[in-house]
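ok here's NAD(P)-binding protein:
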Amino acid sequence: MDSPLPPLQKGWQVIKSGVPKNVLKFRTDLPVPTDIPKGHVLVKVLAAALNPIGYKLMAMPNFMVKRPVIAEHDLAGEIVIANGTEFHVGDEVFGLVPAELSMKTGWGSMQEYAIVPAEALVLKPKNIDFTTAAGVALAGQTAYDALFVIGKLEEGQRVFINGGSSSVGTLAIQLAKEKGVRVDCSASGRNTDYVKSFGAEQVFDYTKKPLYEQLLEANISPPYNVFFDCIDATANLFVHSKKYLAPNGIFVSTGPNVHSLSALPIVLWTMTRIYWPTLLGGVHRQFKIFLFKSEKTKLQALADLIAEGKLKPQVDSVFSFEDLPKAYERIMSGRATGKIVVQVL
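and the structure:
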């Protein structure tokens, strides 16, 4: 290191259950970690990105998650303590603090110095900056897993991506096209050209009428092999999917979009409709809720595609560290086209 670590750092903690503006606390007296567990490193966080899982976890009751907890997971920065791992001090990296680890330890990315498992980091490609790299790990692996691990997409098949202009959606379009898959998606009219620039072919404007009605009227042929809903608008789309999803097709969802506990009754009703037995009129199609697991091989694959210019992560907006609550307002608006990133240092 060029200089010794400071004893204290700034960071954002989630201190209770609720919506971001009510549960976030900005701290200037957090200790900088010095006791780093084996297999982990200390990262000087230069940029951190927001994800829906961030505010979803905030909505969970205190008995389900550890609090206080440092907000968020995605980050990019420099190694300051390598701790006997494959990394070296000064390495530029990106990755994430896994959610399951955060829930147990209280660790997170929205602080100046973060403990991160070495397995959840890779070297940052030289052709992107820290701001862009900060938003790759969670969204990129989500898109990859939904399409190829769960969906098992192959060259020549078809996929529909609901939320094509979202951060996950734009990466999913690019990953699918790279594999030779035909991509259709949803987007607002103002974002049609935007998603087509990544390779989407037929784009459905969800602002005109309910998306499932448009898909029914389109008489999709051949039907989609995978329907990836990455913005949590699942119920009606799945209930009507028999008309546009192949008999052996898979409907993949990132899960219910819970902003607060008051949304739970709606979520339960949605799940009832989805899992209603086929013998009683339910939908005879596979439904999978995405369960995220970070893996170094997937992170490295994403980094390689970025380095080769085949994957171009998008940044919607950048906020100062002190403006994290405003950044959450942006992500929860549902209008972001790319990642919302916070400049930490």
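+1. Residues 8-136+314-343 form a domain with the Quinone Oxidoreductase; Chain A, domain 1 fold (CATH 3.90.180.10).
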